[in-house]
């Protein structure tokens, strides 16, 4: 083997060793860290929703003469303490209340007809969860940041249903309980030095639910359900304000 061939083999071997040992640098190690939420600061945020409706002789698909009114209220405060720069832990709470008072509704399809009078449903729920939120600042200004909030919590819901069907009044009382684990990524942007606007949506969730039910104060029933999802859930899309201090 001549000298030129030997030198070529040595250079190729050194190149392979260098390529194997080289660490791909994406720039994070050398970049100056950006602080969006500094250590020992607090964050208070929340969302709120209210809606009401009134129907007077309304028709929906095969249901005629709907006369009803109702409302929905939900409040969701969130508290975080920054244990490190851009990492917060805290608590999340939620309260919801829904009322539907339907005086009458008639359903007719082919030779089947049914009427419902004096249908009443009232439910309210309470949820508490432990929250963990890391931030990933965008750019160098410290005004924009991505985040992913992880929550582990417990929920309880009570509901009351009564209806007059075929001249018989029927009522059902339900107590529902839920253990939940969810991941809600989002984006936050400061609009002043302390106030920020946030948008988040759920993508990962695990729920275990069980319920106890009493019908007409006589019959008892129960059920349980577990489910897991890994998908974009637009029903959980929320917008809110946050205050950092």
Explain what this protein looks like in three dimensions.
There is one protein chain. Helices cover 8% and strands 75% of the residues. By secondary structure, it is mainly beta. It has one domain (3-244): Porin. β1 and β2 (63-84) form a beta hairpin. The longest helix is centred in the first third of the chain and has 19 residues, at 3-21. The chain is elongated and about 75 Å long. Mean pLDDT is 82; it is low at 18-22.
What are the defining features of this structure?
elongated, Porin, mainly beta, eight-stranded antiparallel barrel, 1 helix, single chain, 8 strands, 245 residues
Uncertain segments of ≥5 residues (pLDDT<50)? 18-22
Would you report the number of β strands?
8
CATH architecture: Beta Barrel
Largest sheet: 8 strands, antiparallel, barrel
Please state roughly what percent of the residues sit in beta strands, choosing from under 5%, 5-15%, 15-25%, 25-35%, 35-45% or over 45%. Answer: over 45%
Count, helices: 1
- Helix content, binned percent: under 10%
Round the mean pLDDT to the nearest integer and report it.
82
Kindly provide the radius of gyration, computed on alpha-carbon positions and rounded to a whole number of angstroms: 28 Å
- Helix/strand class: mainly beta
- Order of H and E elements: HEEEEEEEE
């Amino acid at each position: 083997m001549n000298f030129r061939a030997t030198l070529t083999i040595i250079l190729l071997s050194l190149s392979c060793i260098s390529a194997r040992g080289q660490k791909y640098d994406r720039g994070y190690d050398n970049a100056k860290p950006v602080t969006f939420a500094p250590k020992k600061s607090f964050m208070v945020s929340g969302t709120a929703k209210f809606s009401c409706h009134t129907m007077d002789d309304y028709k929906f698909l095969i249901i005629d003469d709907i006369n009803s009114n109702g409302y929905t209220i939900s409040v969701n405060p969130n508290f975080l303490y920054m244990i490190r720069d851009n990492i917060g832990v805290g608590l999340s709470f939620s309260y919801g209340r829904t009322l539907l008072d339907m005086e009458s509704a008639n359903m007719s399809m082919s030779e089947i007809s049914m009427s419902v009078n004096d249908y009443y449903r009232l439910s309210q729920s309470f949820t508490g969860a432990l929250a963990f939120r890391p931030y990933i600042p965008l750019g160098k200004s410290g005004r924009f940041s991505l985040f992913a909030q992880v929550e582990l919590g417990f929920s309880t819901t009570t509901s009351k249903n009564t209806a007059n069907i075929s001249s018989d009044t029927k009522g059902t009382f339900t107590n529902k309980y839920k253990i939940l684990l969810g991941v809600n990524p989002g984006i936050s942007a400061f609009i002043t030095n302390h106030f920020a606007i946030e948008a988040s949506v759920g993508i990962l969730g695990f729920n275990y639910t069980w319920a106890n039910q009493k019908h007409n104060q006589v019959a008892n029933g129960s059920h349980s359900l577990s489910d897991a999802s890994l998908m974009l859930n637009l029903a959980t899309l929320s917008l809110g304000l946050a205050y950092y201090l």
